[in-house]
Amino acid sequence: MNNTFSLYRLQQLDSQRIERLKRIKQIDQIIASDKAVLKAKSVVQKADDALTSNNNELENVRLKVEEKTLKLKLTQAKLFGGKINAPKELQDLQAESEALRRTIKSLEDEQMVLLEANDVCQDVKKDAEAGLQQLLNKKASENSLLLGEREKLKMQLPKINSQRESLKSQLDEKLLNEYDALFKSKGRVAVAEIFDGSCKACGVELSPTDIQQAANPNVLMKCKSCGRILYKI
Fold first, then answer.
1. What mean pLDDT is predicted for residues 222-231?
2. Is 212 left (phi over 0), alpha (psi -120 to 50) or beta?
């Protein structure tokens, strides 16, 4: 087994995998960071917040109406229950009843205003959501090439991963660890091709002996200048 060739091939697969993942991330960022879409989403969020706030106010007023209505019923029951005969108490209950009616009327007026505002908020939110969807449809068409590219890249990854794992299973763990360390520290070029008698990675000229050793499948030859594994095509 030619370890140098296997490592060179693994490096190609690693680079292909990294480049595809990087490009997929770029495409996702391009689509997600579209300013027009972000603005439209912000409009929808504001409309939703306004509707939620209005609904909360409406619920609070409804609870107040229920509370005051119940209190009015209790006051009326006391007023006409026949158990209270003192004129002063009856006058106080009558005054309290009138005050409660005025409060309930005021709350009901406020309720009507909030209901009208609720309809407006719902319309605004509906229009904002429609605008966002229309924009998303437009962007989907504009980004169809990017989405197509993204899907193609994703489909290529399983095959690359499978080939990587197959290669790694054939290599010694110590050798793999050495390769991984070089791959990370040498700008993703752990294995350098010999080109025109030189290390293609750093450009240093190699001796005929070094080149001959690099061509030997049983020898793992490294560049004396940059420390990368040399590979003779």
1. 96
2. alpha
pLDDT at residue number 161: 97
Tens digits of residue pLDDT in 135-167: 888 887 778 888 889 999 999 999 999 999 999
Three-state SS at 232: coil
201 and 140 fall within a common domain: no
Confidence (pLDDT) at 80: 85
Nearest by Cα to 157 from 10, 13, 17, 14: 17
Same domain, 95 and 147: yes
132 and 62 part of one domain: yes
- Is the CB of residue 146 less than 8 Å from the CB of residue 25? no
Nearest to 153 by CA among 5, 1, 25: 25
Q: What is the pTM of this model?
A: 0.57
Burial 208-221 (b: 16+ CB within 10 A, else e): eebeebbeeeeebb
**Domain membership of residue 60 as a residue range:** 34-151
CB atoms within 10 A of CB 160: 17
